[in-house]
Design a protein that fits this description.
331 residues, 14 helices, globular
């Protein structure tokens, strides 16, 4: 590790990131059309999502192919939302900007609405690594119990219910219904269908029964949504929650160098696939937040050695044993 001060190391990393971005933009002038690129990505994602759902509807592809493809598509939508939270696209055109915000939420209905998430995400950058980081704590960061962490990672609503009392005591201004209502109406409908279908099949297993005609029609629609929207987003969000809650520190953090570590372990590769390589690139975002996700992805290979040189840790998975606490290394 470098013998520079934390501030000097941070400045060196930020300088390297900005230099790589400037070099990339100089080589590819098309990157100046940032708004247009984002809109093309959004429209391609929407069309791909609708196309895959249509292929499944006409039985051209099996359910498992649909689930995997939609999970990949919605992982791109998540990255777009992440950039939109920082107002990187159409910030001077509110109608278009909010159209994009709504579109990425419709493709990922198991999340809080992006307008509320903007508040907790920007707050996350200010308090990352502390008990006040609601965004990361909602997805499992800082939880000691492996079982409870798994529950939160797999089911955000159940995690919110379980942790609500603790959050009320530890997080300033936390209100259960403020977070719960931020998911309305999409997340409520999402979890309603999910739990409804699971309950139906559980009851069928215990005591089989026949649904009325209208019930059968409703079940058919619910099962279709399970394949084209609900299960893919379970896969996507669980992968993302596992990665992000593993790489963010909780406690012992004093600066940006200590907020995250970079995950490159091959054991995480299947999960990286469904969250757009989040574990290997997200740390860059903590140093330079206002940067499109595709640029971060392109420059990440050159930036990772720079971060390693200047004190950012890699694959510090031992921190999970200490509820993500950042511990000083023994000399």
């Amino acid at each position: 590790m470098s013998k520079l001060t934390a501030k000097q190391n941070i400045n060196a990393i930020v300088t390297a990131i900005k230099a790589e971005e400037a070099s990339l933009r100089a080589r590819y002038p098309i990157l100046k059309w940032q708004n247009g690129i984002a809109m093309v990505i959004l429209l391609l994602s929407l069309c791909s999502f609708i196309g895959v759902a249509t292929l499944y509807y006409v039985a051209a592809i099996p359910a498992w192919v649909c689930i995997i493809l939609v999970a990949l598509i919605t992982s791109i939508a998540h990255e777009l939302e992440h950039d939109l939270l920082h107002k990187q696209y159409f910030s001077q055109r509110p109608f278009v900007h909010n159209f994009m915000m709504l579109s990425v939420w419709l493709m990922r209905p198991n999340t809080v609405n992006p307008w509320y998430r903007r508040k907790i995400h920007l707050h996350h950058h200010k308090v990352s690594g502390t008990s006040q980081d609601l965004e990361e704590r909602l997805v499992g960061n800082g939880i000691q119990s492996p079982f409870l962490r798994a529950v939160v990672i797999l089911d955000a609503l159940l995690g919110l219910l379980i942790n609500s009392k603790r959050f009320s005591k530890e997080i300033r201004g936390f209100k259960f219904f403020r977070v719960f209502n931020a998911g309305a109406p999409l997340a409520i409908a999402y979890f309603g269908i999910l739990y409804g279908v699971l309950t139906y099949y559980a009851l069928q297993f215990v005591m089989p029964f026949t649904l009325p005609a209208w019930g059968g029609e409703f079940l058919a629609v619910a099962e279709f949504l399970m394949v084209v929207l609900i299960v893919p987003n379970m896969l996507r969000s669980a992968s993302l929650n596992l990665i992000t809650s593993s790489m963010h520190y909780y406690g012992g953090v004093t600066n940006v160098l200590e907020q995250t570590h970079v995950i490159t372990s091959r054991w995480f590769l299947p999960f990286q696939l469904f969250c757009f390589d989040f574990g290997r690139t997200h740390t860059i975002h903590h140093f330079v937040p206002n940067q499109p996700f595709y640029i971060r992805q392109v420059i990440s290979q050159k930036i990772r050695p720079v971060m390693a040189k200047h004190g950012v840790r890699f694959d510090d998975l031992h921190s999970l044993r200490h509820a993500n606490r950042y511990l000083a290394k023994k000399e």
